[in-house]
Write a structure and sequence with these properties.
alpha+beta, 9 helices, about 300 residues, four-stranded mixed sheet
Length: about 300
């Protein structure tokens, strides 16, 4: 587990560096499209570094605000508070994660934060209402596994960056709609042409690459979090039963979006017409199929 945490920290650093470069080129291109001249590179660097800083320190708050989560209380959410308190001992986490609740009928949960000392677990009211004690224990243990393995830093930062890139792509499309690039034959424009071409390529392709990276990272880590959760609870049946209930629930999570879907324990977007059919993992799946996850858990028993 120590090797996994170390690897995730290293991957987080690499991804942050890549996104700084990508966002710098994209913003540089947009600034040149708006004819901001020599200030373009300065604006691009400030924006990309600022985005990275905000993503690292405030990504959890951004995500909680986007889903309108409220802090859990003993008066309203005693059962889940007690489960979290009990699992702290077996998980070995240095600090108890903050617990939040989202008012939504779909049973689901996610973990966020930059490290185990600054971590958050968020559950829906649907999860609290539809799962029994041992099923809830399995879900909370799964999210605590993400925290201990440092998956939260990686998934949260990638989610925020993908959101920023989509926003920048929208700005670019609006810029073209308002008039696009104007011809400028001065020397500075010709010197910047190569960087602008690279920026345009990144602008077009980065949402696709960012989404693919987001999906691949999520799928790979769900299996590890499932197996680690069993180490915490010693009860695979609880998590297996929880995954089955979450998969079969027909409600769609209203507060989720494409940038944050990979963070949840199961895909928050339900597809019609698939009930009773075996679901397989494909390139655009945010999660491995529930059947594959359950089979992997049963092989542990």
């Amino acid at each position: 587990m120590f090797k996994t945490s170390k690897k995730n920290k290293f991957e987080s650093g690499i991804i942050i560096s890549i996104f700084i470069i990508v966002i710098t080129l994209i913003v540089y291109y947009v600034c040149n499209a708006l004819e901001l001249g020599n200030f373009s590179i300065i604006i691009a660097l400030i924006f990309s570094i600022g985005t990275s800083w905000v993503s690292y320190y405030y990504s959890d708050k951004i995500i909680l605000a986007s889903c309108k989560a409220r802090p859990a209380t003993k008066e309203e959410d005693l059962k889940i508070v007690n489960i979290l308190d009990a699992l702290i001992v077996t998980s070995g986490l240095p600090k108890k994660p903050s617990l939040y609740v989202v008012e939504d009928n779909q049973p689901n949960a996610f973990a966020t934060g930059r490290n185990p000392e600054h971590s958050i677990i968020c559950v829906t009211t649907g999860l609290l209402e539809k799962l029994d004690y041992y099923e809830l224990e399995g879900v909370i243990a799964h999210e605590m596994s993400h925290i201990k393995n440092y998956d939260i830093l990686l998934s949260t930062i990638v989610s925020v960056f993908v959101g920023f890139i989509v926003m920048l792509s929208d700005i670019f499309s609006r810029t073209l709609f308002w008039g696009g690039l104007k011809d400028n034959d001065d020397d500075s424009s010709k010197a910047n042409g190569f960087l602008m071409i690279i920026g345009l390529i990144f602008l077009i392709l980065s949402p696709i690459f960012g989404t693919l990276m987001q999906l691949a990272l999520s799928r790979k880590r769900e299996f590890l979090a499932d197996s680690t959760a069993i180490e915490f609870t010693r009860n695979p049946d609880g998590l297996i039963s929880a995954l089955q209930k979450l998969e079969n629930d027909s409600n769609e999570l209203k507060s989720a979006n494409s940038a944050t879907a990979n963070m949840y324990i199961v895909n928050p977007f339900k597809k019609n017409g698939t009930k009773g059919k075996k679901k397989s993992t494909n390139l655009w799946s945010t999660h491995p199929s529930t059947e594959d996850r359950i089979e992997a858990l049963r092989n542990i028993i």
